[in-house]
Specification:
single chain, 729 residues, mainly beta, Immunoglobulin-like, 8 domains, four-stranded mixed sheet, four-stranded antiparallel sheet, 1 helix, 79 strands, 3% helix, Invasin/intimin_cell_adhesion, Big_2, signal, Bacterial surface protein
Length: 729
C-alpha cells in the first residue's frame, strides 16, 4: 500500500496533480488487464495503522492494491474500489482522496470484489492557534478606533514545540461590515463610523477583533468668503464661481487645522465644485457636500437662467423643399418686461439631423436632404426648439378628396391630405407645404390659422405646392339634426327595380331637405343591389338598407320576395278605446297563392295623426275620434276606418227615487260617464224597463204612474245600468 505523507502536510503543485491523475488513469487501465484474474484479497499500500489529515490543508491520497491468484505481483484498484466514511462531518473520501472537515476521528473503508478493508483517520488542526497582532502585540477582542487611524494587523500561527510563524499574507481576511471598514492582507481601511469585526483565518484557525469606529470630529462647517454660513447659494447661468471653505471641530471642541475635504455635487450638470469653488453649469438645483472623516456639511445651490424668457423667430415648425432658400432664425430674450432684447452672439445652435438640414452659428438653416430635424437654440440657461422638415422636388400634386362637407360655425375644419410625386416617382405627403386659398371667403375662410365655415354655401379651395395646383369643393351646411326615411319597411319584388326610399334631412334651423340623391347607400346583403335611384332584389332574402349623410344615418328593413297580388285587413271598421294597444293584422297573397302575415311589415299611416301611433304592427290609440288607417306594401294599399271611443264606465240618473200620484209623470235623465271623464246624456240611447207596469211605465225617460204601489225603473246600455225607485201613492 502507498500513502502520501500521512503525517506531514503535502502541498501539491499543479504539474504534480496532472501527473497523479495520469498515473491513476494508467492504474485503472492496469486493473482492466486483470479483469478476468481471481482476486484473493486487498490491502492498503504499505499497510499504515492510521492516517492523519489537517483542516484547510491539502487532501491526502490513500491507495488500495489487490492480490491476484497465481501471481506474485499486485494491481492498484484505488479507482475501482467503493469508498465510504464512518463520519462525513469529520472526513470525506472520494476514490481514496481524504479531505478534512472537522477535528475528530473517523474510519474510512474500501470495498472491492467482496473484500473490505478499513483505516482509522485522525483529523486535526495544523496549528494550535492563530492570533491577530499589532506591532507584535496581540490585540484586544474589541477596540475603539477613529476614522483616519492607520491600522495594520499581522496574523501569527502558534504550534507546540515550534516558533510562531507569520502567515499575514497567506491568511484570509474579512470585514463583517465593509461599509464601515475593509481589510486586505491585514491592512484595515476605515471608511465610516460604525462597527465591524475583522477576522483573520489560516488553516482552519481564526482570530477576530471587533472595531468600534468613530469620527475624531463632531462637526464640519461651511462658510462663504465673507465668513457667513450659506443656506442657499444662488447663481445665474453666467455668474462667477463662489468659494466655500470647510472647517472641522474635534470631539473635544478644538478647531482643526487645514483639512483635505472631499467635495461632491449631486448634479454636475447644474453645478461643479473643485476644492470648494462652486461653478454654475446649467439651470436647476444641486446639493454641494463637503465630507471629512465621518462628518459632513451640505448647502443647496440654485442656478437660474440669465433671462426670464426667450423667443425664436419664426416660432412655427418649418416645412421647406430642397429648392427653398435658407431660413434665418432670430433670437430675442426678455428680462421682466415685453421689450425684446436681440441676441446676436453666444447662442449655441444645433441640428439633430445634419443630413436633412444644418444650422450655422448665426442661426441660418440650410436644407440639405429629404428628412426632418430639430433645430435647437440654447442661450444662458434658456432653450427653444422647433421642427424643420425638408421635402423633395415634386412634379405633381393630388388631393385625397375632391370635396368635403363642413357645418356653419365650424372653426377648425380639417382639409384633405395633399400628396405629391417626387422626381424619383415616390409619393410624398406635402400637406404641410400646401398653401390654400378660398374662392368665397364669406362661405369658407382661414381665420387665426384655422379654416372656418362662415355660412351655408359652396366654395372652391385651391392648393399650391411648388407652383403645382389642385382644387377641391367645400360644401358648408347648416347643422344636421335627423335623417329620416319615408319608409321603415320596404318590399322588393325579386328581379324588379324598386325606387329607393325618400330620405329627408332635418337641420337645426328647422329646415327640411330632400337628400335622397346625396346620401351614401349601403346594403347588408349581396342579394340586394343598390343602383340609385333604384334597388333590385336577386333572390328571396332579408336585408338592411342604410343611408348616411353628414354624419347622420337611417336604416330601412328590406324584404326580397315574390310579388304580392292582394292585401286584406281583418276588419273594415275598427273600434277602440282611448290609450289602448292593438295588433294590426294584414294578410298578403303572393302570386304563387301563398299567404303571409304583413302586419309588422306594412308602412302604416293614420289620418289624423293625433288619433293613434303605430310601430310595426302595434297601434296605440291616443284620444277619441274617427280617422282612416292606411297600410302600403309593394305599391299596394289597404285602408280601414278607425273609431276611438271611450268605454262607458257608469250611468247616473238625475233622480234615484220618485214619488208620484196615480196618472202623474216625471222625466228622468241618465248621464253616461266614459273613460277620460267625458259625460254624455244617454236618456234616449238607453233601454228603459219597468219592474211592474201595473204601478208605473216609462218611455224615453218619461215615467208615468198607473196605480198605487212601488216598482223599479231601470236604464241599461253597454252592460251598464241605473235604477230609479218609484212609489205611487
Amino acid at each position: 500500500m502507498r500513502m502520501n505523507k500521512l503525517v506531514a502536510p503535502v502541498k501539491f503543485r499543479p504539474w504534480l496533480t496532472v501527473v497523479l491523475a495520469f498515473v491513476l488513469t494508467l492504474s485503472s487501465f492496469a486493473g482492466l488487464a486483470y479483469a478476468d484474474d481471481a482476486v484473493t484479497g486487498i490491502s492498503f499500500e504499505n499497510s499504515p495503522s492510521m492516517a492523519r489529515v489537517y483542516i484547510d490543508d491539502d487532501a491526502v491520497q490513500v491507495d488500495v492494491v489487490a492480490s491476484i491468484s497465481g501471481s506474485a505481483s499486485t494491481k492498484n484498484v484505488t479507482l475501482n474500489a467503493t469508498w465510504s466514511t464512518s463520519n462525513s462531518s469529520i472526513v470525506k473520501v472520494t476514490s481514496g482522496l481524504l479531505t478534512a472537515v472537522a477535528k475528530g476521528t473517523a474510519t474510512i473503508s474500501a470495498n472491492y470484489q467482496g473484500y473490505k478493508i478499513s483505516l482509522p483517520v485522525t483529523v486535526d488542526y495544523l496549528y494550535d492557534s492563530v492570533t491577530i497582532k499589532n506591532d507584535g502585540t496581540a490585540v484586544d477582542s474589541a477596540i475603539n478606533v477613529k476614522l483616519g487611524d492607520t491600522i495594520v494587523y499581522s496574523l501569527m500561527a502558534a504550534k507546540s514545540g515550534a516558533n510562531d510563524q507569520d502567515f499575514t499574507a497567506d491568511a484570509t481576511w474579512t470585514s463583517s461590515n465593509t461599509s464601515a471598514a475593509t481589510v486586505e492582507d491585514g491592512e484595515v481601511t476605515l471608511l465610516a463610523a460604525g462597527e465591524t469585526t475583522i477576522t483573520g483565518k489560516y488553516k482552519g484557525r481564526t482570530d477576530t477583533v471587533k472595531l468600534t469606529i468613530t469620527s475624531p470630529y463632531k462637526s464640519l462647517t461651511l462658510t462663504q468668503e465673507d465668513g457667513t454660513k450659506p443656506d442657499l447659494l444662488e447663481f445665474n447661468i453666467d455668474t462667477d464661481s463662489q468659494q466655500l471653505t470647510a472647517t472641522a471641530v474635534t470631539t473635544d471642541g478644538t478647531p482643526s487645522g487645514p483639512i483635505k475635504v472631499v467635495w461632491t455635487s449631486s448634479s454636475t450638470a447644474v453645478a461643479t465644485v473643485d476644492n470648494g469653488a462652486v461653478t454654475p453649469v446649467g439651470v436647476g438645483t444641486a446639493t454641494i457636500t463637503a465630507s471629512y472623516l465621518g462628518v459632513s456639511s451640505s448647502t443647496m445651490v440654485v442656478v437660474r437662467p440669465a433671462y426670464e424668457a426667450m423667443r425664436i423667430t419664426p416660432k412655427e415648425d418649418q416645412h421647406i423643399t430642397l429648392k427653398d432658400t435658407p431660413i434665418q432664425f432670430k433670437l430675442d430674450v426678455f428680462d421682466g418686461n415685453d421689450t425684446p432684447i436681440p441676441v446676436t452672439s453666444g447662442i449655441v445652435w444645433t441640428s439633430s439631423n445634419v443630413y436633412a438640414a444644418t444650422v450655422s452659428s448665426d442661426g441660418v438653416v440650410f436644407p440639405k436632404g429629404v428628412g426632418a430635424t430639430i433645430i435647437k437654440a440654447s442661450y444662458k440657461g434658456l432653450t427653444q426648439q422647433l421642427n424643420v422638415t425638408v421635402y423633395p422636388t415634386i412634379t405633381s400634386i393630388t388631393a385625397a378628396k375632391i370635396s368635403i362637407d363642413a357645418f356653419v360655425d365650424d372653426s377648425n375644419v380639417t382639409l384633405p391630405k395633399v400628396s405629391a410625386t417626387s422626381l424619383a416617382g415616390d409619393t410624398v405627403d406635402v400637406s404641410n407645404l400646401t398653401n390654400w386659398t378660398s374662392s368665397d371667403t364669406t362661405v369658407f375662410e382661414k381665420a387665426d390659422g384655422k379654416w372656418t365655415a362662415k355660412k351655408a354655401g359652396t366654395a372652391v379651395l385651391t392648393a399650391v405646392v411648388q407652383g403645382k395646383t389642385v382644387t377641391i369643393k367645400v360644401n358648408v351646411h347648416e347643422h344636421p339634426l335627423l335623417l329620416t326615411s319615408d319608409q321603415t319597411n320596404l318590399s322588393v319584388v325579386i328581379g324588379k327595380d324598386t325606387k329607393l326610399p325618400t330620405i329627408t334631412m332635418t337641420y337645426d334651423t328647422g329646415e327640411e331637405e330632400d337628400v335622397t340623391s346625396l346620401v351614401t347607400w349601403k346594403s347588408s346583403s349581396s342579394n340586394l343591389l343598390v343602383k340609385a335611384p333604384n334597388i333590385k332584389g336577386i333572390q328571396a332574402a332579408s336585408a338592411t338598407l342604410s343611408a348616411t349623410y353628414l354624419g347622420k344615418s337611417v336604416t330601412v328593413r328590406v324584404t326580397i320576395e315574390e310579388e304580392i297580388t292582394k292585401l286584406t285587413i281583418d276588419n273594415t271598421t275598427l273600434t277602440f278605446s282611448p290609450e289602448r294597444s292593438a295588433t294590426l293584422k294584414v294578410t298578403g297573397v303572393y302570386k304563387s297563392g301563398k299567404t303571409i302575415a304583413l302586419g309588422a311589415k306594412m308602412n302604416w299611416s293614420i289620418n289624423p295623426e293625433s288619433l293613434a301611433t303605430i310601430k310595426g304592427s302595434s297601434m296605440k290609440t291616443l284620444k277619441e275620434g274617427t280617422g282612416t288607417l292606411t297600410g302600403e306594401y309593394q305599391g299596394k294599399s289597404v285602408s280601414v276606418t278607425i273609431s276611438v271611443i271611450g268605454k262607458l264606465r257608469k250611468l247616473t240618473p238625475s233622480s234615484k227615487a220618485l214619488t208620484l200620484a196615480p196618472e202623474g209623470s216625471e222625466t228622468v235623465k241618465v248621464v253616461g260617464e266614459y273613460e277620460g271623464g267625458r259625460l254624455t246624456d244617454l236618456s234616449k240611447a238607453v233601454v228603459w224597463t219597468t219592474g211592474n207596469s201595473k204601478v208605473a211605465v216609462v218611455t224615453d225617460g218619461v215615467i208615468t204612474a198607473v196605480a198605487k204601489g212601488s216598482t223599479n225603473i231601470r236604464a241599461t246600455i253597454d252592460g251598464k245600468s241605473a235604477t230609479i225607485r218609484v212609489s205611487v201613492k
